[in-house]
């Protein structure tokens, strides 16, 4: 078991919490984390890149010049790739970049990312993530009290309304409900901030 102190959103002590070794106490593996991040980024890639092939460019399809007697190579349509304005050979086409990754590997990747934050000292547990008013200034003051600059804040089933509004214009800060927690967002920020509700939901999820 991993014992970690709990803070309030004002930076004061609020007791301790014991975290499960099966979720927060694993030895990090860079190969699994890399596989999961690659799967995430490939899945969200649009794949809408497209160039025109020789059958799609708007050029005449009639024979450019007579077959024999010119001393030049035997060409037909000006839409061939070797001509200026012709179609592109083997150009990009609209496609999906997504690839399969077993569910067990994805789940393991999330547990390894959480464990990596614990090992690096980049995990903070807060009692709850609530602000009295939806003011960015108040949220920045909270960030200073907790010593945060680059952070992912994960709340319970729903992000507290004032927090979501106050944090959306702050750079290097992401706020997610616990259902949206993912390996890429955990690793791209220096600090992971979990509420007690988020910890309970994660331990219930991986029980």
What is the topological layout?
Blueprint: E1 2-7, E2 13-19, H1 21-24, H2 30-44, H3 103-120, E3 123-126, H4 136-146, E4 151-154, H5 161-167, E5 173-176, H6 183-188, E6 191-195, H7 196-205
Parallel strand pairs: 1-3, 3-6, 4-5, 4-6
Antiparallel strand pairs: 1-2
Helix pairs in contact: 2-3, 4-5
Protein name: Large ribosomal subunit protein uL4
Family: Belongs to the universal ribosomal protein uL4 family.
Keywords: Ribonucleoprotein, Ribosomal protein, RNA-binding, rRNA-binding
Compose a concise summary of this entry.
The protein has 207 residues and is of the alpha/beta class.
What do these coordinates show?
- Part of the 50S ribosomal subunit.
- The protein has 207 residues and is an alpha/beta fold.
- It folds into two domains: 2-46 and 101-205, 3-Layer(aba) Sandwich (Ribosomal Protein L4, Chain: A), CATH 3.40.1370; 51-91, no CATH class.
- It has helices spanning 21-24, 30-44, 103-120, 136-146, 161-167, 183-188, 196-205; strands spanning 2-7, 13-19, 123-126, 151-154, 173-176, 191-195.
- Helix 2 crosses helix 3 (103-120) and helix 4 (136-146) crosses helix 5 (161-167).
- The protein starts with a strand and ends with a helix.
